[in-house]
């Protein structure tokens, strides 16, 4: 059985994917200003049952 190389195009696709995931993480990390934003979405949960999620 012959060993196959990962390939240049696969490395490019991998690094583009990782860069995109990191960019999304940085974007959302900068939008978060407090623990309330993290745990309760800053009070921005849509729907009629939002009081159940925001109680505490």
List the defining traits of the structure above.
56 residues; mainly alpha
Detailed description of the structure:
The radius of gyration is 20 Å and the shape is elongated. It has three helices and no strands. The chain has one domain. The longest helix is centred in the middle third of the chain and has 24 residues. By secondary structure, the chain is mainly α.
Quick description:
This protein has 56 residues and is mainly α.
Task: Tell me, rounded to a whole number, the average pLDDT.
Answer: 80
Number of strands: 0
Number of helices: 3
- Count of distinct structural domains: 1
Spatial extent as radius of gyration:
20 Å
What portion of residues is helical? Answer: 55-70%
- What gross morphology would you assign? elongated
| Secondary structure category | mainly alpha
- End-to-end separation in angstroms reads 61 Å
Low-confidence stretches: none
- How does the major sheet shape up? none
User: Beta-sheet strand percentage?
Assistant: under 5%
Note the run of SSEs as H and E: HHH
Transmembrane segments: 12-29
Keywords: Membrane, Transmembrane, Transmembrane helix
């Amino acid at each position: 059985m012959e060993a196959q190389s990962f390939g240049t195009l696969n490395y490019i696709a991998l690094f583009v994917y990782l860069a995109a995931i990191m960019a999304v993480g940085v974007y959302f990390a900068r939008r978060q200003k407090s623990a309330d934003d993290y745990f309760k979405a800053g009070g921005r949960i849509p729907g009629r049952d939002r009081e159940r999620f925001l109680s505490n």
